[in-house]
Amino acid sequence: MLNNLKPRPADKILVLSTLFRADDRAEKIDLGVGVYKNAEGHTPIMRAVKSAEKQLWNEEDTKTYTSLPGDAGFHQAMADMVLADSVDRDRISFCATPGGTGAIHNVLETIQAAHPDTTVWLSNPSWGNHQSMLNHLGMKSVSYDYFDAEACAVDYPAMLASLQGVKEGDVVLLHGCCHNPTGANINNTQWEEVAELLLAKGAIPFVDIAYQGFGNGLEEDAFGTRLLASKFPEMMIAASCSKNFGIYRERTGIVMAISADAETAKVTQQTLSHMNRQNFSFPPDHGARLVTMVLTDPELRAEWAAELEEVRTGMLALRQQLADALKAETGSDRFGFIADHRGMFSRLGLTEEQVIKLREDNAIYMVGDSRINIAGLTQKNVPIIAKAVAAVL
Ligand code: LMR
Question: Is 52 a catalytic residue?
Fold first, then answer.
């Protein structure tokens, strides 16, 4: 049987991590996978999360199952953070999942259960695993224009023009903030226009929000998601806690599905829970519990919010430093967009050959589409990277 299996295309981001680990050059620089790193190149456990973990260790007196959709306290804390009061709570169905990827998978299966023929629209480009999961589930997908590869900015007119092709009942996947892989994002006015267009088309928005707090701020980054939630009768949201709580390996994510009314939300809830049961039964709870504690305890929350803000502003400073260093090295403004982008990534606009050359000659690792993880930059490596990039141009 197993000899019938076909080789599968490896995930480009994960392959890069493997290559990086195997490289024994001391000066190697990892700008690959989207994991936060501090100036020492370490991914720390956030202070508030560590405090919550200690408290949990003391207080937790059972490891029995939670419920299929996870803990209700987690649902409400996440709804407070992502949606605030943009939509009536009784229209939301929730499901805790293993990470944001688990949430996306649950959402896609739920869409499929409702309408197997649904077309899902993805930005071009999008996070590689979006397309891969759609293919895996045998779902129909189309892409909408998003990125101007020359300017390394959102090609907003092209985005609107493509979205004109959306048909009633189509699902349109939007990155809630901090677009991955480009780092280029639509502004609030554009969110409003996209919302109006999709409403007129009868589309269902599906927001993937994995970097809330990494862009313009915790509240600011929720603008688009909350706007859509306030306007659309139906909407799907997949949120990840991996990055903004730094709990990558705990696999903590959530689905929030908005139905037209509270009655429908009950049936939606059954479907979300059913998907968990079929795929892995109960969701992981440890990370979800830490998130709930951090979000609901005023002291822990304040500490977490302050640390998240340090992370965010630290990345903004690194963006500016790299933009400045590249300006100095290349004598042009070509890379000015790095300072304007938001979130964990920027796509530099280099060719695949240039990316490979940087890896082979300089031990600088970035994804093949020239996406860099901003958190991989440090004051020390920025000048090295800028020199190397200028040299391959
Ligand atoms: C990334 O885009 O690097 C992250 O979302 C990690 C992943 O799983 O790909």
Answer: no
